[in-house]
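Hey, quick one: can you model this chain's 3D structure?
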Amino acid sequence: LDLERWLAGEQIQARPAKFSTRLIRRARRHKIIVGLGAALLIAVVATLLSWSSGRKSRLDKQEIERDSLLVLGTTQYSNQDWHAALQTFTEILAKADSAEARVGRAKCYYRIENLEAAEQDLNAALALNPNHPSAKLWRAIARSRYGTSAQQEAALVDLMESIHKNPEDRDTQLEGVRMLIEGASSAAPQQ
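Sure thing. Here's the predicted structure for all 191 residues.
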């Protein structure tokens, strides 16, 4: 009986075959089903790879567009065109939230003296990236303009954390200290 089963490519009872051997024998007996299954598997894998590649291409295109808008907004800010830069950073944020765009927009808000909006954007930037190199510094600068002792104290804490997190960025920090002092003196009550 085992000899007939072996010749038919089936499992024998005296000593059961290994799983891999049984799988190969079953595949030989059912060639059409195995072929269709393999073709289906290849089609699924090819579809997934194609979809993934297309998705990555779209993401790369969006990233390039965002980066070019960041450069445009930064250039507008450097040219002291605060409102154009504000509009560019807002356009970036309409598509996707970004700590870099939030800091850029906050700097514009600071320049047009919308300090509450600046602080909101800086808080959002820090929520997205707690280690953003300049978000704490700019929040310190914005807070220094409020004039209350609590805000002045919070500004100093932010400035110290910024200096601690980014010790290599001394030029920006010195500029921040200068702006912080200017902000505190402009926010001080007039006598």
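One thing worth noting: The CA atoms of residues 104 and 126 lie 13 Å apart.
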